[in-house]
Fold this sequence. Notes:
Elements: E1 3-6, E2 9-11, E3 23-27, H1 31-43, E4 47-51, H2 54-64, E5 68-71, H3 77-90, E6 95-97, H4 102-113, H5 126-143, H6 167-181, E7 187-190, H7 197-206, E8 215-219, H8 225-233, E9 234-235, E10 247-248, H9 250-253, E11 258-262, H10 269-281, E12 283-285, E13 292-294, E14 298-303, H11 307-312, H12 318-324, E15 327-330, H13 341-355, E16 362-363, H14 365-373, H15 379-393, E17 398-399, H16 426-440, H17 445-452, H18 456-465
Parallel strand pairs: 3-4, 3-5, 5-6, 7-14, 7-15, 8-11, 11-14, 16-17
Antiparallel strand pairs: 1-2, 2-4, 9-10, 12-13
Amino acid sequence: MRSQTGAGQKEAKQPAADERIHRVLLIESDPQLQRFWETALTGGGFQVAIAATPDDALHLAANTAPNLVFLGTGLDGSKAAGLLEALRRMSPKLSVLAPANVEQVRQELNAMESHGPVTPASPLKVDQVKIAVTNALDFEQLTRGKQGSDEAEVRPPPFEELVGTSPQMQALRRAIVEAIQADPATVLILGETGTGKAVVARAIHCNGLRQKKPFVVVECTAMPAALLESELFGYEAGAFTDARASKKGLLEVAEGGTVFLDEIGDLEMPVQAKLLRVLEDKRARRLGGTQDYAANVRFVAATNRPLETLVREGRFRQDLYFRLNVFHIFVGPLRERKDDVVSLARHFVEQCSRAFHKQIHGLSFAAQQQLTAYDWPGNVRELRNIMERAVILEQGELISPRHLALGATGLMTEDAIHLPEGGIALEEVEKTLVTQALERSGGNQTEAAKLLKITRFALRTRMKKFALL
């Protein structure tokens, strides 16, 4: 394991020459925080070298070549600046992170230690470090083989929305990197509703060669086949009754970029046939037109439906399925990667706190336990909605369990229904509940209305009010 090399200094075990290691240099003078960060980071698969002083840090950096420096507490501004300047001279591209809200971390650690030893089961802010290191390695794989290119133009892929450090999330990041490298091959993203398939599609686009070109989303369930066809391919003046002028299709708008076909399993047969031609010939034609145009786009498709079953039932073209399934990515449900729940929840709390101008810094330990115990039938989308509601209701600095409406009866307890001292935007709460009901019912309005104990007409009225139709 590691050996003691000096006062306040612990050196990481040296790996074999061909072993890929994530090395973190932890600079922390507080023994309690040292133990916590070391345990959590080591449990996350990283090798950790600990330095209590700037001199120790410089010595370890010279001997361990860290991938990342995690700057803890105990250094004032001038010492920290001088140390970082010296570290950057050793390695100009060295990444540096510091934990946010250190006092909150210390308070929660004290509370946890009063009930038993600290373990990495409650990683607090450590997930930010894990994500940063994992993203750096994703970038290393992405740029491998590009030697001789202008390094000033190379930047790490922004996978910020792909939060989590579970094995499933790490495999997903690797699959995204492979999909990026496989351009222009078509990508098919599979997964349940709410798992984040659109986030994966955008990550593929934003980190590839087409990142400066348009990213166009086509909602395959949002409109009838005839309308979808005209939107996708465009039309000439006079092609149909209301076509008073020519209009570019989304394939033309996306020239050189990516077209994301969301929920392609719901695409109707007539449009499937025309889409197949585009995929095969890379050419398309406007409705009412006589000339083809080049469709220089990359297609990324997503569905929550079993396409192989639809093919057997005759509801999806087999040849189109083969064309789409050149490279496929599976996004697993949240219930199968519980290790990511708290990290995702913190991410959404930070986003929503900024959006609602609130000062909420995280989750109480009890709230974290409730979140990880829940099965998340609505996946990441349900988690985001629940955290948004919790941020709206919370008046303190940490999200408490009473504001977590988990499950269909989550709002029916006396503790959960709580009017904050400063009041509440009732319409925001109502919109959140309507959205959650629709997600939990898979978009079935009759079932969603039952969950809300209202009529389908009343539900549709609210959907129109909140622009959910």
